Amino acid sequence: MVSLALRPRSPSELVDAAFQILRAHYPQFVMCSALAYLPWLVVQVIWYSDPARLASISPQASVVFGLGIWLIFALMSAVLIVCASQAYLGEPLDVGVAVRQALPRLPLVLVAAVLRFLLMFIGLFLFLFGALYMATRYFATTPVIVLEKRGIGGAFSRSSELSRKRKRHIFNTIGLASLIYWVLAFGVQIVAAMVGNLIVQALVGAAVTIMVYPVVAITEALLYFDTRIKSEGLDIELMTGALDGAPPHAPATP
Fold first, then answer.
1. Residue 119 in this model has a pLDDT that exceeds 70
2. Where are the domains of the chain?
3. In a 10 Å sphere around its CB, with 0-12 CB exposed, 13-18 middle and 19+ buried, how is residue 3 labelled?
4. Rounded to 5 degrees, what are φ and ψ at 58?
5. Which of 78-87, 124-133, 240-249 has the highest mean pLDDT?
6. DSSP string, the chain
7. Of 14-23, 83-92, 143-152, minimum mean pLDDT range
């Protein structure tokens, strides 16, 4: 079991810590990714099996398709973030417990994901800056919903509070993890595209996502804890609780 010190970290240190957690619990994280992604893979295979449908796809359908992908990644992140929290706080990593904790929160996670998608879409009209601002300001909505059990409004306001004066740190951290993921994903997809079969490309893309995307979700969870450590002294609070014999769960409120 990997043991990580509870301390403030730089973007590169957070991503490195995410890889350490992923390596230590790789089968569990891959299982979580597969459970969340497989339904979307079925939709892709059905969609790609009809060339006529692909040829007549409209811009509106493309937006819906993009929203669907966004929601699937939100679902994956919800369970993966709970697993990452267990590992980071020194608890046994239990996929069943993570699923049971995340499952009741999934409707709120999906609503929050749609709202973030809309805010970022609107932000695109401000020459990309607005979209990046929305992404960094509301980076922690999913961790707050599944770990602190807050509602939609509480999650957005809490994320806004945690991101205050730390948006560059948040952007650099999520950007680094996402860059690693997308470089690997695009590299493999380019090779798969040589086959010329869309279903094969979908299967290869699913395999890469299931195996590699967990590092992005783990980084998101660690970034959430990192902002709490820097803003609220969460590390000191948890260490004090450990000395008092309290369980290692992170307090839900400051």
1. yes
2. 11-51+59-227
3. exposed
4. -100, 165
5. 78-87
6. ------S---HHHHHHHHHHHHHHTHHHHHHHHHHHHHHHHHHHHHHHT-HHHHHT--HHHHHHHHHHHHHHHHHHHHHHHHHHHHHHTT----HHHHHHHHGGGHHHHHHHHHHHHHHHHHHGGGTTHHHHHHHHHTTTHHHIIIII---HHHHHHHHHHHTTT-HHHHHHHHHHHHHHHHHHHHHHHHHHHTT--HHHHHHHHHHHHHHHTHHHHHHHHHHHHHHHHHHH-HHHHHHHHHHTT--SPPPS--
7. 83-92
| Among 164, 218, 208, CA closest to 184 | 208
- The reported pLDDT for the residue numbered 202 is 86
